[in-house]
Design a protein that fits this description.
Elements lengths: L6 H12 L12 H14 L8 H21 L7 H17 L13 H13 L1 H13 L5 H11 L15 H4 L1 E2 L6 E2 H9 L10 H15 L6 H20 L4 H8 L2
Antiparallel strand pairs: 1-2
Helix pairs in contact: 1-2, 2-3, 3-4, 4-5, 4-6, 5-6, 6-9, 7-9, 10-11
Length: 257
């Protein structure tokens, strides 16, 4: 956008909010106007359970990537919290389709922008968790990817810098009480793994095997066998914690219903 955050975005948000049942935004628009529309569409997004894989890919390419790049390049870190938490959901979803170790890269963000997203997720964890769980259940996010990423992003996972830095976005997005902090994707995994129609890896053997396979595919890891062994060993204890209901946030959420 020409301005990091201008009144045209608020105008479009109100317009789209008032016409959610109307036709989708289309047509040839000025690039600046198109970016403003993308910002507004993300801020207005509340229903995630009707988004499948192809729709999510299109939305990321058309709206998610330009907005995340604009956020990192031109916008102040502090934006409205409801917009920041939605940006965080979009960014997490993007990691599945555009993993850095496959030669594709997320738009980069300064540390203060990542911090702002982390604070927004922590403050509105219910929204972030529910949105990502809905994306898994609708088939937009792959269960295998969610479980692997949940293990890798855990605050107590092995710290192998070349695999995932503790400062990376997936690790920085954390939820839960201070005595039991977990990554956002850990919380999502703990919920979807309890679903009756869950089709992802089950048992320590399958989870460990999935992590070893991922390490073999990564070209950014120096000693891929050592990394695979380290995460495979950790996966066993991680899975035991999941199966015993280690994520207290799930109980808190059910207790508030």
């Amino acid at each position: 956008m020409l301005e990091p955050w201008g009144p045209e975005v608020e105008m479009l948000v109100k317009h789209i909010d008032a016409n959610r049942g109307g036709p989708s935004v289309s047509g040839g628009t000025h690039p600046v106007d198109a970016l403003a529309v993308s910002w507004a569409l993300i801020r207005a997004q509340d229903q995630w359970d009707n988004i499948d894989d192809p729709r999510l890919r299109r939305a990321l390419e058309r709206h998610g990537w330009p907005v995340l790049k604009d956020y990192g390049d031109a916008c102040p870190a502090q934006l409205p919290p409801d917009l920041l938490v939605r940006l965080a959901v979009v960014a997490v979803a993007g990691f599945q389709f555009f993993p850095p170790h496959n030669g594709t890269y997320m738009p980069t963000m300064p540390a203060e922008h990542i911090d702002a997203l982390a604070r927004a997720v922590d403050a509105d964890s219910d929204f972030a968790i529910t949105a990502l769980v809905d994306l898994v259940r609708s088939g937009a996010l792959n269960e295998h990817w969610v479980v692997r990423s949940a293990v890798l992003s855990s605050p107590v996972a092995p710290h192998i810098e070349s695999v995932l830095s503790r400062g990376d976005l997936l690790c920085r997005l954390q939820v839960g009480p201070a005595q039991a902090r977990r990554s956002l994707l850990e919380q999502v995994a703990s919920i979807v793994m309890s679903d009756g129609d869950y089709r992802g890896p089950v048992g320590s053997f399958e989870v460990s095997a999935a992590l070893r396979a991922e390490m073999r595919e990564r070209h950014d890891v120096g000693d891929r066998f050592r990394a695979g062994d380290a995460y495979a060993r950790f996966a066993s204890s991680w899975l035991e914690d999941v199966e015993s209901g280690f994520v207290l946030l799930a109980h808190e959420r059910s207790g508030r219903r």
